[in-house]
Amino acid sequence: MNHIPDTVNLSRMHPVGEPDKPILRLEAIRKKFGEHVVLDDVNISLKSGEVVAIIGPSGSGKSTLLRCVNMLGPATSGRVVIGDLVIDEAVPPTAQQLTQLRRSVGMVFQSFNLFPHMSVLRNVSLPQERVLGRSRKDANKRSLELLARVGLEDKADQYPARCSGGQQQRIAIARALALEPQIMLFDEPTSALDPELGLEVLAVMQELARSGMTMLVVTHEMNFAETVSDRVIIMADGKIIEEGASREVIRNPTSDRAKRFLKAVKDR
Amino acid sequence: MSDIAAFWLDSLPQLLAGLSISLQVTGAALAIGFPLGLLLALGVQSKVKAVKLPSLCLVEIGRGAPALVVLQFAYFGLPQGGLTLSAFAAAVFALAWNTGAYTSEIIRAGLESVPFGEIEAASAMGMLPRDTLRFVIIPQGLRVAAPALLGFAVAVLQATSLCFAIALPELTSNAYMIGTITFRYMEILSLAGILYAAICVPATIAVGVLEQRLGKHAL
């Protein structure tokens, strides 16, 4: 079988049912704020179970791109394709499309965004009840399993304010996983944490990656990008400037811009 | 001194009856006014013009017109339009409107204090806007607004004294009536003041305690 570069539009090349069929495709994503172009023809394709890290300098459009995937901040044009769901970024999605999209894609934020007035257990259970229609009992059962998975079952009855940042982020991951997403987006999940607390979150993400979750991770953690992700994408000025196997991209970047960025990161 | 005490003791039943009516008006005005305030707060934020504009009108008139004017309008004005309200109903109508208009701003500020990230997270999880409103925004927004709302409740109790103008036999009216008969205005109005304070001062302290409790889970 021919090797097809990941950025190429694969829609017609891979018929339905093909094992290598991408689970998520971003096609020609463009986003402008007025005259300012923040995303310029970005194409990304993820296979099921693949972990892709997006790195790059601040303001390169990494987080903006992530927010286009689940339409939290739609792009000016382009398409997001998840299975048979095709979202045109330029058109407001129907309620049904949006529901399908948000159920397929989980997201973890830099600032955790837990609900502070609810216990940890309620934080994880409420969305299951409202979005998936699970009973309180089933939701709680699932929540406790997931809290155990992120090592926090003993925090179930606490409130988020009583948990460290690292714990809060792990709860946020459990909350997103509880909705059984096909794909998980991580928007700088460790940037608000001190290095030690960041590690416990990265450990959870590593375990998640090993379990076969498809993940798109915007990060500044070079070690995670290099060792956990299958591929690394480097973005600058709204464009993908380099992408490929993680180790290769991080060790031997080809473009000057990528070299400059990676040197700055490594020399810290 | 014992003369004043005897006068107060004599007058007390009538003043307590008045206080009871003041509290009933306050209770009814708040029971209608707070939910109205929440509805108006949501209405003012609505993107639907047919909801937003009437809400805005109710809020601006309620805040712009003095409570005394609304009160007299309800009692003396509405009958001209064919709607005759009892003094009690007119008092509740006017103070509920006033409460709704003012508290809508307090509640709106509370709702807006809920961090946008939480709303975004709820939305990213596929929660419907009405669920996000119900489970995330309103519970937290009202918690933020609660101390100011209870502070306003104290002010509403004091505002019931305006009902004196529509001959509702509440605390101030009754005190005044006793004054007109005995000419001992100073003593009787002092007692009325003490009775208002007996409710308002503990209520204010309770608000302070509540404020501390509600901040417990803040991040």
Automatic annotation (TrEMBL), chain A:
Q: Which SUPFAM superfamilies match?
A: P-loop containing nucleoside triphosphate hydrolases (SSF52540)
User: Pfam families under this entry?
Assistant: ABC_tran
Topology of this chain in the membrane: Peripheral membrane protein
**GO cellular component terms attached to this protein's record:** plasma membrane
Name of this chain's protein: Amino acid ABC transporter ATP-binding protein
Molecular function GO labels: ABC-type amino acid transporter activity; ATP binding; ATP hydrolysis activity
Family assignment from sequence similarity? Belongs to the ABC transporter superfamily.
Query: Which PROSITE patterns does this one have?
Result: ABC_TRANSPORTER_1, ABC_TRANSPORTER_2
Q: List the source organism.
A: Mesorhizobium denitrificans
Q: Does the keyword Chaperone apply?
A: no
Q: What is its main location?
A: membrane
Instruction: Give the keywords, sorted.
Output: Amino-acid transport, ATP-binding, Cell membrane, Membrane, Nucleotide-binding, Transport
What is the top-level taxon of the source organism?
Answer: Bacteria
Q: Fetch the Gene3D superfamilies from UniProt.
A: P-loop containing nucleotide triphosphate hydrolases
- State the compartments where it is located: Cell membrane
- Report the residue ranges that make up the ABC transporter domain in this protein: 24-262
Q: Which PANTHER family match?
A: AMINO ACID IMPORT ATP-BINDING PROTEIN, GLUTAMATE_ASPARTATE IMPORT ATP-BINDING PROTEIN GLTL
Q: Which SMART domains match?
A: AAA
From TrEMBL, chain B:
Which Pfam families does the annotation name? BPD_transp_1
Q: Where are the transmembrane segments?
A: 20-44, 81-98, 144-168, 188-210
InterPro entries linked: AA_ABC_transptr_permease_3TM, ArtM/GltK/GlnP/TcyL/YhdX-like, MetI-like, MetI-like_sf
Question: A single Gene Ontology molecular function, please?
Answer: transmembrane transporter activity
Q: Which UniProt keywords apply?
A: Amino-acid transport, Cell membrane, Membrane, Transmembrane, Transmembrane helix, Transport
> Which locations, inside or outside the cell, does it occupy?
Cell inner membrane; Cell membrane
One GO cellular-component annotation of the UniProt record comes to: ATP-binding cassette (ABC) transporter complex
Query: Transport among the record's keywords?
Result: yes
Q: Membrane topology per the record?
A: Multi-pass membrane protein
| SUPFAM superfamilies, alphabetized | MetI-like
- Could you tell me which CDD domains the record lists for this protein? TM_PBP2
Annotated ABC transmembrane type-1 domain residues: 19-207
| Major site of localization recorded for this protein | membrane
Q: Name one GO biological process term.
A: amino acid transport
- Do you know which NCBIfam families this protein is assigned to? HEQRo_perm_3TM
Function, in words: Part of the binding-protein-dependent transport system for glutamine; probably responsible for the translocation of the substrate across the membrane.
Family under the similarity heading = Belongs to the binding-protein-dependent transport system permease family. HisMQ subfamily.
Record-given protein name? Amino acid ABC transporter permease
Q: State the taxonomy lineage.
A: Bacteria, Pseudomonadati, Pseudomonadota, Alphaproteobacteria, Hyphomicrobiales
